[in-house]
Specification:
single chain, alpha/beta, Rossmann fold
Amino acid sequence: MAMIFQRKNLRLARTLIRHALGLGFYARPDITCYKERHGSDYGGWWLQPKLLNDDSIIYSVGVGTDISFDLSIIKNLGVSVHAFDPTPKSIDWLKKQEKPDRFVFHDIGVAHYDGFARFYAPKNAQHVSHSMISQDNVGDEAIEVRVCSLQTIMKELAHDRIDVLKIDIEGAEYSLIDQILEESIPVQQLLVEFHHRVIPDGVKMTKKTVQKMRESGYRIFAVSENGEEFSFVKLD
């Protein structure tokens, strides 16, 4: 336990140094609240469980090969999770996993529009995550996949809100969040990994997005030690 604590402190120290040098970004939580972390060290997220019940609507966008967060909240909070990922490795991996009925998988991408998108494969063949955005860790090889907007997905699933939206979409989070804010899509808790580390002008984009979210009534209640995973809640 002490070693884990030391590692987390070291990661936070590195993040704060990068932030001070303008090479990274870190923001302290805006509010203090009861929260729980669900999932593995790699794939876990902080959320506010007291805002959820068994009728809550959870979207998990970007699965990869880690559904520990999804399985934990299904088991411990009694919720259902709609998961989205169009990448072949993720789809193949999921087929081999034991999943509860409350885990509902959709093999489509989520974007700010309906149609098709080119997903660029990672340069490292051992990695899984593809990206709609050209960035440092993807190559020229790409696949074309179907993508849908949140509005279209919510309409097809007969959902009038999203209680928790988890986003890990390799740099495409900025345009998706812009749409959520501009069109007032009702999302209560938004858990997002910002990829400013690999996106051109990424630090500037993350700062701007966090500012816009705060102006729209969202408040940060948790931040990872590396300054990339943020948990927001919409305050009335």
